[in-house]
Amino acid sequence: MPFIKPLPEWQATGTEPPLSLKQMGWQMGVKPPSDYFNYLQNRSYEALKELQEKAGEVKTVNNQAPDINGNINVNVDTSTLATKEELTTHLADYIKHPAYGITKSLISNQYAVDIEPSPTIYTEGMGLVLRLTATSSAVDSISVNINGLGGKALRKANGNTLNNLKAGGIYSFRYSTLGNGGAGAFILQGEGGEYGNAGPNDVRVGKTFGTEEGIKQGTFVGYGIGDEIPIEKLDAPLGYMNMPRISSMGAQPSTQYHKDSLKYDHSTDSLIIANTNIIYKYKANTTAYIGQYTAPGSPIYYLQVDEDYGFIYVDADGRGRNISKMDINFKVLWKTNVTIFSSFYGDLVGNAPGNNGVAAAESSNSYVWRWNKDGGLVWGGYQGIADTYNLCLTSAPNGDVYVAVQQSNSIHKIYKFDGLTGVRTEVTLNSIQLNPVIKLRFNKVHNRLIVIFQNSGMQVRAASNMGLQYSYSGITNMKNAEVDNEGNIYVTSGSGANAVGGMITKFSHSLSILSQTIIGLTESVAAIAIDKTPGKEYPDVYFGGQYTVATRSKQTVGIKQ
User: Fold this and answer.
1) Under a CB-based contact definition with an 8 Å cutoff, are residues 488 and 538 in contact?
2) 406 and 545: one domain?
3) Dihedral sign, CA of 153, 156, 159, 163?
4) pLDDT, tens only, 231-254
5) Residue 233, φ and ψ in degrees, nearest 5
6) In sequence order, which residues have a C-beta less than 8 Å from that of residue 153 and are 6 or more positions away?
7) Is residue 213 a part of any domain in this protein?
8) Quick check: 452 and 443 in contact, CB under 8 A?
9) Could you give the residue ranges of the DSSP H alpha helices within 119-242?
10) Nearest to 154 by CA among 130, 177, 173
11) Does residue 142 fall inside a structural domain?
12) Which end of the chain has the lower number of beta carbons within 10 A, N or C?
C-alpha cells in the first residue's frame, strides 16, 4: 500500500546547532538563528523521504508481486497437512505415543486413573505412563482401571505379579492381550534383566540385592583380607584356641589379696590395676602410664570402678578400712567410717553403675551398708545373717544390693536388699555343699543376677525374685567373672581339664559356651576386665594373675593375604 501524504519538502540545509544547545535546549530570552531552524526542518524532511523510498520498494513472495494496494496472494500446498479429524485420531492413538496420567485413588489394590482423550477399549500395545499418588501393597497383585473401562492387572515382563510400587514413582507400561493368562495386563517397561537365585544368606551383611520381591538385605557374615574373625566363629576344639595378645601393662594385679584387682573404665578408656597397696592407671588402647595412688596401709583388699563415670571405690587406707570414692585423678571425694574385713573368696564391696552409690558387707558380724553417690548412708547396720562363713556382694543399677552367703552348716543363701529401704528378701541355694559362691555379677542388659561357684559351675537368676533361669556345670576351680555390653559372661578358671595354665570361657547370657581359650600362664587366671566401649561387639579382654602383668588380648584373629 503506497504512502498518501506528501512529504514536507525543505531544501535549505541550515547550520547544525552546537552540542551544548542540543543538551540544554532553548532557554528563556534566547533568539535562535534562522539557520538552526533550517537545519532541523531539512533533517526531518530527508528522514521522512528516506523512509518512504525504502518502504516503497517492490517485494515478492513465492515470486508473487504485491498488487496496487500492496497485498500479495500466496498459494500454499496443503495436500500433506493433517486434517482436524486426522489430528483428533492421532491424539487418541496410544500405541504410537503413550498416555500420561496421575492416579486418582488406590482402593482394594487397584489404581484408578483418567486420561484424555478417553479410550473406549484396551488395545494391544497401548502405552500408559503413570505417576502414582499412593504406595501399593508389597505382596498383593496390583491392577489399574483407566477411565472406568475395568481393572487390568499390572505385571512384570516375565509375567510375575507386580507390587511394592511407590508413591511419587513414574512407571511405564504397555498393554498385552496375552498377559495375565490371556485376560490382558499392562506390562512394566524398562525393568531390567532377570534375577538370579541369590538369597539373603548369600549376600554379606550391610549389602543389598534385588529380587522379584524387591530389595532385600544380606545376612551372610563373611570375612576377607584385613578383616578380623571372632575366635568363637572358628571351628576349633573348645579349650585349645589361644587368645591373641596385643600388649601388656607394667603392673600385675594382686590376686593373692583380691581377685577384683583389675578394672576397665570406658569413660576414659583406661585400665585400673591394684597391686599390693598401689593403684596404677594405664591407657587401655596404648598401655601408656597415666598415674597411680598409694594407700597408707597394705594391702588394698577392694577395688570397684564405675565404668560409666570412672569413679573408683577402694579401701583407700588399705586393709579394708574406710571405703572411699575417688575421681578419675585419684582424688578422694569422700570416705566411710567402717572397716570391712577381708574375705578369701568373696567381694565385700559393690558399686551401683551409673554413679548410683556403693554397698559393702562385713563378713564376720553380718553388717551390710549402702551409701548414695555423695557418701550419705542410705541404710545399713546389723542384718542378723547368722553363722556366716563366707559372703560376696554386688549391686544393680537401681541400687538394689545382692549378698550371697555360705554359712558354716553349708546352707547357701542369696539376700536381696532394696536399694532405697534396705528391706530384705532371700532365696536358699540347695545342694551346694561346701562349694562357696565366689562371685556375684549383675547383667544389666538382661536384668539378671549371675552366681559363680568355685567348683560346680554357675547360675543365672532373675533380678526381681532371684528365681533360677539357667545353670551350668563342668568347669572347676573358677576364679572370676565379668559381663560385656551384650550380656555375655567371661569366666576365668585355673587348672583342670583343658585348663592347664589358666582358661577364659565365654558364655552367652543363657550360659551357652561361645568360646574357650587357654591363656598359657604359669598360674590360674584370676583377674579379668572387659572393654565396655558401647557398640563393640567383640571387646578386648584384659587379664592377669599373681605373677603375671595385666595383659590386653583380643577376641579376633586377622586374615592375611
Assistant:
1) no
2) yes
3) negative
4) 677 665 443 344 555 556 556 566
5) -90, -10
6) 141, 142, 143, 179, 180, 183, 184, 185, 186
7) no
8) no
9) none
10) 173
11) yes
12) C
> Could you tell me if 142 and 248 lie in one domain?
no
Q: Assess whether 262 and 357 both reside in one domain.
A: yes
Strand partners, 528: 543
Q: Is residue 253 exposed (0-12), middle (13-18) or buried (19+ Cβ within 10 Å)?
A: buried
Secondary structure of residue 557 in the 3-state scheme: strand
Quote the domain boundaries for residue 136. 93-188
Q: How many CB atoms lie within 10 A of CB 330?
A: 17
Structure confidence at residue 251 (pLDDT) = 60
Q: What is the 3-state secondary structure (H, E, C) of 505-554?
A: EEECCCCCEEEEEECCCCCCCCEEEECCCCCCCCCCEEEEECCEEEEEEC
Q: What angle do CA 489, 549, 234 make, to 5 degrees?
A: 40
Are 152 and 236 members of one domain?
A: no
Residue 311 lies in a domain: yes
CB 333 within 8 Å of CB 375:
yes
Contact between 274 and 303 (Cβ < 8 Å): yes
Answer positive or negative: Cα dihedral of 511, 515, 521, 522: positive
Element holding 91 (H helix, E strand): helix 84-91
Predicted confidence (pLDDT) at residue 187 exceeds the cutoff of 80: yes
Averaged pLDDT of the chain = 83
- The pTM of the full predicted model, rounded to 2 decimals, is 0.62
Q: Are 560 and 224 in contact (CB under 8 A)?
A: no
Domain end call among 188, 220, 240: 188
Amino acid at 383: Q
Same domain? 245 vs 163: no
Question: Beta strand pairing status for 437-443 and 110-113?
Answer: unpaired
Last residue of a domain, one of 129, 161, 188: 188
Answer whether residue 409 is part of any domain: yes
